[in-house]
Design goal:
Blueprint (H helix, E strand, L loop, with lengths): L22 E9 L4 E8 L12 E2 L2 E3 L6 H13 L6 E2 L7 E7 L12 E7 L1 H7 L3 H13 L3
Parallel strand pairs: 1-6
Antiparallel strand pairs: 1-2, 1-4, 2-3, 2-7, 5-6
Length: 149
């Protein structure tokens, strides 16, 4: 599987590494005995009213030049959600974008960055409906299968 990155800088103008992986996704989830929910964030530069499904996705972001991949995952997670955690690496088959996961407590507090204006906890079916490109759903579904959620 391959993924082409068509951007050279982040939404706020920072340069993106030219080395793979170009960025990371942290599939963040919580669960109880009967339900698993995934955290999705709404990008502020996408209008909610437009129906633009590219606007929703898990915490994710581009890697800066010379930035360690794991440090990028921790940085993006904290910047976008306020969560200080230790995400676990997966072997997701797309080499251009690294996928991590983090299970959090059910009552964790989310603190959004200026990049996002909303968040919600949703089931896997909703992830498939609201998150694009399809690769985003595939990342979440990969973690769901990996962790038997």
């Amino acid at each position: 599987m391959s993924y082409k990155l068509n951007i050279t800088e982040t939404w706020d103008g920072l340069p993106i590494t030219k080395e793979k992986p170009y960025g990371i996704t942290i599939v963040t989830f919580r669960r109880d005995e009967s339900l698993t929910e995934y955290l999705v964030l709404h990008r502020v530069h996408r209008k909610k009213s437009s129906g633009n499904r590219w606007a929703w996705g898990p915490p994710a972001g581009a890697r800066l030049p010379q930035e360690d991949v794991y440090e990028c995952a921790c940085r993006e997670l904290e910047e976008e959600t306020g969560i200080k955690g230790f995400p676990q690496e997966t072997n997701f088959p797309v080499k251009e974008w690294k996928v991590y996961y983090l299970e959090v407590d059910y009552d964790i507090s989310i603190s959004l960055s200026e990049e996002h204006d909303d968040y919600k906890w949703v089931d896997i079916n909703t992830v498939e409906k609201i998150c694009l490109p399809r690769l985003v759903f595939e990342q979440v579904d990969f973690v769901r299968k990996l962790k038997n959620l």
